[in-house]
Write a structure and sequence with these properties.
Chain A: This is Histidine kinase/HSP90-like ATPase domain-containing protein. The complex is a heterotrimer of chains A (140), B (455) and C (115). With 140 residues, chain A is an alpha+beta fold. Helix content of chain A is 34%, strand content 27%. Chain A has a single domain, classed as Heat Shock Protein 90, CATH 3.30.565.10. In chain A, helix 1 packs antiparallel against helix 2 and helix 2 runs antiparallel to helix 3. The two termini of chain A are 16 Å apart. The chains are: A alpha+beta (140), B alpha/beta (455), C alpha/beta (115). Chains in contact: A-B, A-C, B-C.
Chain lengths: 140, 455, 115
C-alpha cells in the first residue's frame, strides 16, 4: 500500500476546533486493526483528537491577535500503520521555550505542547516562509 | 515477562475489592536514583514491584483492583492495561497527597460498593507466601490495619465474616521500600526464598535458577545458584554468575567477570575482568546499596576501564572499512543503476516501510540493502564506519556506521538494548571481524524486515 | 456543551455534558456557580466526552479562585479520556476526584460543615 494524503483547510476560528479534532479522530479510526485491542484503537484515535484540539487552538488563539483569521490546513499522510499529520498556519510562531508547567502553581496555560508530546510518537515544530508547521506522527 | 495465571482455588462468591494507593512522596528516592523508571515498575528480582501487589490482592481473593496515585499512572496503565493478564479487573484513579484511608474509601465508594475492601497503602513490600490462603485473612480480619510499617500499611474496611473455626490467620510482615538499601535487601531475600514463595518470572530446570528468553551462556561461564536472569542476556566465557545474582534483561557480562550478591539492572554492559560484589549496577552507574553511594562511569558506556583503540588500530580499521565499502559499492552499483530509476518512478526509494505488497524491484532492493548505498561513499572519506552503531546515533563512544552491529546480531535495532550490543562490539571487534559482521548484517537485515512485516 | 446547575443548601452540583475546550470554556467560566468564587461545586463529568488543555486550564483557574475564597471543586465520574489529561499534566493531585456523584455530594456536605 502506498501512502495517501488527505488535505483539509478550515477557517482559523475557535468554533471549528471541535470539527478539526473530530476529523482527526475519525481519520485515525480508519487505522483500526482487528489484532489490536479496543482500548488500543480507542487510544490511537483519542491521541489525534487531543493533539489536533491543542494545535488548532494554538493556531487560532494566535490568529486572534491578527486582523483577519488565517485559514489552517491539515494534511494527513496515511501509511501502512503510521499516521502523520501536518498542520499549517500563517500566524505568529509557536512559543516552544515555555517549560512544562508545575501543577503546584495552578497554571491555567501551557499544557498544550506537553499533551501533544506525550500522546504522539514524534512531534516537530518548524517555520517555513512565514508558515508554522507542526508535524506529528503515531504508529498503531 | 510471561506470567503464569494465578488461579482462584474453590468458589469465589465473596466480592472483595482491593485499593492499592501509592503516593509520590514515598517514591521520590526511586525517581532520584532511576529517573527514567516509573517507581511502580522498580524490578525486585526481575519482577516489577506492582506485580507483587497485584499477586497479593489476588491471593487475598480480589478480582477487582483499583490503583490509586497522586502522580501519573499512564505508563502503568499502558503496561498492565485492564488486568486481563491476571484474570482481574484493573482500574485507575487519582488521589491527593494528603488523602487518608477514609478519603480513599469515600472517593472510591462506587467501586467499593459496600463490599469488604482491602487497602494496600504505601510503597511497601508484602512478604507473602503464595502457598497460604489469604482469603481467610481477608474475610475474617477485624476492620482496620493488620500490618503497618513506616511507609505504609495493609488495612481492611467493611464488616468481617465471623470466623468459622480456630484456624490461625497467616501472619504477614510488610517492609518499607524506602531506599536503595531496602530495595537491594528485598530483592536478595526474594532470590533466596525463591519461586516457592513468590510468583517469579523466568524458567528454571532446578530451584534457585530462573532464566529468561534468549540467554546465551558460554561453555566456560559458571552459574552458582541462586540466580535470576532476565531476557536477552549474554554471559561470556569465564564469567561467574552468583551466588545471589540478579541479572536484568538486555545485559552483557563480558569475559572473566564475576557477579555475586549483586543486582544488574536492565540495559547494562559489564566489562571484562570485573568483580562485582554487593552492588547494584544500572547503565553506567555502580551503586553501593549499603551507603547509597553511587559512581557514574566517565565513559558513558562501559563499567570498566577498557582501553580505547590506539591510533594505529584506528588507521588500520579505517583502511579496511574503506576497502570493504569500495567492494560493496562495486557490487551494488549494477543493481542500483537498474533498480533506482524504477523505484524512483514508483516513489518508493528509501522511504516508507517495505510492505507485504512490495513489488519485485522493491523486495530485491531490500534484500540487497540498496537503501544504504548512498552512505557508502562516506566510508571512503572516513566519515562513517562500515559497521558500528546505527547511522543516526551520535552519543559519545559510538561509532556511526552504515550497518550496525545490532543488525548483524539480529537484535532489535531500536531501543537501548541495541546500544548494548553496539557498545560491546565497538570495544571487541577487530577490523577483520568487522568484515564478517558486515556480511552478517547484509544477510540478516532483509530477514528481519520480512519478520517485521509478517508480525 | 451544556451545563446544568442544581443548587443545594451547602453547594451546587454542576453537570457538564459534551466537550470542554477553548470554544466552550468561556461558557463554563460564566456559569453562575462556577463564576461565584465562594461557592463549592461538585462537577459531574460523567457525560463529558472530551477535555483538552484549554478546558483543563479553565478548571484549574476556577479551582484556584475558589480555594482562595475558602471553597473548592469536587470532580465526579471522570471518563478515561478526561482522566488522561489530568494524569499527563499532573493536575490530578490538585482536585478531589470521586467515582460517584452521591459520594462527592456527601463529602462536600461534611467537608463544608466541618469548617
Amino acid at each position: 500500500m502506498n501512502s495517501s494524503n488527505i488535505t483539509i483547510t478550515l477557517p482559523g476560528e475557535l468554533r471549528f476546533i471541535r470539527l478539526a479534532s473530530k476529523i482527526a479522530s475519525n481519520t485515525a479510526s480508519l487505522f483500526t486493526e482487528t489484532r489490536k485491542t479496543e482500548a488500543e484503537n480507542w487510544e490511537f484515535a483519542h491521541a489525534f483528537e487531543l493533539a489536533v484540539s491543542e494545535a488548532f487552538t494554538n493556531a487560532v488563539v494566535h490568529a486572534k491577535k491578527q486582523a483577519a483569521p488565517q485559514p489552517v490546513t491539515i494534511t494527513f499522510t496515511l501509511e501502512e500503520r503510521k499516521l502523520t499529520l501536518a498542520m499549517r498556519d500563517s500566524n505568529v510562531p509557536f512559543s516552544t521555550r515555555t517549560p512544562s508547567p508545575d501543577p503546584e502553581n495552578y497554571p491555567e496555560n501551557g499544557y498544550g505542547l506537553l499533551l501533544i508530546r506525550t500522546v504522539m510518537d514524534t512531534v516537530t515544530l518548524t517555520r517555513e516562509n512565514d508558515t508554522n508547521i507542526i508535524t506529528m506522527s503515531k504508529t498503531l | 515477562m510471561p506470567q503464569p495465571p494465578l488461579r482462584h482455588p474453590g468458589n469465589h462468591n465473596n466480592a472483595m475489592k482491593t485499593l492499592i494507593a501509592i503516593k509520590e512522596q514515598h517514591q521520590s528516592w526511586v525517581r532520584d536514583a532511576f529517573p527514567n523508571m516509573h517507581p511502580l515498575l522498580l524490578p525486585l528480582c526481575n519482577k516489577p514491584f506492582i506485580e507483587y501487589l497485584i499477586d497479593f490482592a489476588i491471593l487475598a481473593g480480589s478480582r477487582e483492583i483499583r490503583l490509586l496515585s497522586d502522580g501519573s499512572l499512564m505508563e502503568i496503565e499502558e503496561i498492565c492495561q485492564t488486568g486481563s493478564r491476571w484474570g482481574v479487573e484493573l482500574t485507575y484513579a487519582n488521589i491527593r497527597p494528603e488523602d487518608g484511608e477514609r478519603e480513599l474509601l469515600h472517593k472510591n465508594r462506587k467501586f467499593c460498593n459496600g463490599s469488604r475492601t482491602m487497602i494496600l497503602n504505601g510503597y511497601t513490600f508484602i512478604d507473602y507466601d503464595k502457598r497460604l490462603d489469604y482469603r481467610v485473612l481477608a474475610n475474617h480480619s477485624a476492620t482496620g490495619p493488620i500490618a503497618s510499617c513506616s511507609t505504609g500499611s495493609i488495612a481492611f474496611a467493611g464488616s468481617p465474616e465471623p470466623a468459622a473455626d480456630d484456624n490461625p490467620l497467616p501472619a504477614l510482615r510488610i517492609t518499607p521500600l524506602d531506599s536503595l538499601r531496602s530495595c537491594y535487601h528485598i530483592a536478595m531475600q526474594i532470590l533466596e526464598t525463591g519461586a516457592e514463595r513468590y510468583v517469579l518470572p523466568g524458567y528454571g530446570s532446578e530451584p534457585g535458577c530462573a532464566i529468561g528468553r534468549n540467554v546465551a551462556i558460554a561453555k566456560t561461564a559458571e552459574i552458582r545458584k541462586p540466580v535470576s536472569i532476565g531476557n536477552n542476556v549474554q554471559l561470556l566465557p569465564g564469567t561467574i554468575i552468583g551466588p545471589m545474582a540478579v541479572i536484568g534483561s538486555n545485559v552483557i557480562i563480558d569475559k572473566g567477570s564475576s557477579i555475586s550478591g549483586s543486582i544488574i539492572f536492565d540495559n547494562t554492559y559489564i566489562g571484562e575482568q570485573l568483580e562485582i560484589e554487593g552492588r547494584i549496577a544500572s547503565g553506567n552507574t555502580l551503586i553501593d546499596p549499603e551507603s547509597g553511594a553511587s559512581v557514574a562511569m566517565e565513559d558513558p558506556h562501559l563499567l570498566t576501564g577498557i582501553h580505547s583503540a590506539t591510533n594505529s588500530a584506528t588507521l588500520l580499521r579505517k583502511t579496511i572499512h574503506a576497502l570493504a565499502a569500495a567492494i560493496l559499492i562495486l557490487l551494488q552499483a549494477i543493481p542500483v543503476i537498474i533498480l533506482y530509476p524504477l523505484l524512483r518512478l514508483q516513489g518508493k526509494w528509501k522511504n516508507g516501510p517495505i510492505t507485504q505488497q512490495a513489488g519485485l524491484a522493491e523486495t530485491l532492493a531490500a534484500r540487497l540493502s540498496l537503501d544504504r548505498f548512498p552512505l557508502l561513499p562516506k566510508v571512503l572519506l572516513g566519515q562513517l564506519a562500515i559497521i558500528g552503531s546505527a547511522p543516526r546515533s551520535n552519543s559519545p563512544g559510538c561509532r556511526p556506521a552504515v550497518f550496525s552491529y545490532a543488525e548483524a546480531e539480529d537484535w532489535p535495532v531500536t531501543g537501548s538494548d541495541a546500544a548494548i550490543v553496539e557498545r560491546y562490539h565497538a570495544v571487541h571487534s577487530t577490523p577483520f571481524n568487522d568484515i564478517g559482521m558486515t556480511i552478517k548484517a547484509l544477510i540478516n537485515r532483509p530477514h528481519k524486515r520480512n519478520a517485521g512485516a509478517a508480525a | 456543551m451544556t451545563i446544568t446547575e442544581t443548587t443545594g443548601s451547602t453547594h451546587t452540583i454542576v453537570t457538564i455534558c459534551g466537550t470542554l475546550d477553548a470554544s466552550t470554556a468561556p461558557d463554563f467560566r460564566n456559569s453562575p456557580a462556577i463564576a461565584d468564587p465562594s461557592r463549592t461545586v461538585v462537577i459531574d463529568l460523567d457525560k463529558m466526552d472530551f477535555l483538552d488543555s484549554s478546558g483543563l486550564g479553565a478548571l484549574v483557574g476556577v479551582l484556584r479562585r475558589k480555594q482562595e475564597a475558602n471553597a473548592t471543586i469536587l470532580l465526579s465520574c471522570m471518563n478515561p479520556p478526561v482522566r488522561k489529561v489530568f494524569d499527563i499534566t499532573g493536575t490530578c493531585k490538585l482536585f478531589h476526584i470521586f467515582d460517584d456523584t452521591d459520594a462527592a455530594n456527601d463529602y462536600a456536605a461534611t467537608y463544608l460543615r466541618g469548617r
